[in-house]
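Hi there,

I know you've been waiting on this one. I reran it after we fixed the sequence typo, so this is the corrected version. Both the input and the resulting structure follow.
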Amino acid sequence: MKVRSRGIELDLPPGWEAEIDGGAGEGTGAPSGEVLTPRTHIANFPMPPVRGDFGSGAVEQMIDGDVLLCLLEEAGEAVGSRLHGHAGIPRLAAGDFSPQAMQRPLKGQSGAQVFFHDQGRAFVLYVVVGSHLSRASRIDAINQVLAGITLHSE
């Protein structure tokens, strides 16, 4: 499945779905002319229609085997920051995941968060797995999804 919007192109393996939207503020009466940065959610389970930037609304429904990737663009000035020093779309390992990395702890789940820049744009990648104990069995699929992401300068 291919999805493209807002300078983000996804080539997803079978069984994955994605949505790219305007991120925080979209549809909430944001002032005219306000630039909303893209928010991308990618999952191997049916995502609920309403989700927070970091997947609230979806992570509560996750079970063992489920994966949610949240790719959030940051403000342009973040590109040169030390926090976003990693160049290019990252790849993850099982050791990158921790229950303490969750935005909000949920029993049994584990998260990973990486800040990076690519194509003159700054991003945070936040990934949640439904089970910390089986995270290693999801790494290949996660990295396949990440390899299918192409970012374009805006």
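Quick highlight: Strands lie at 2-5, 8-11, 17-21, 39-43, 67-73, 86-87, 110-118, 121-129, 149-151.

Best,
R. S.
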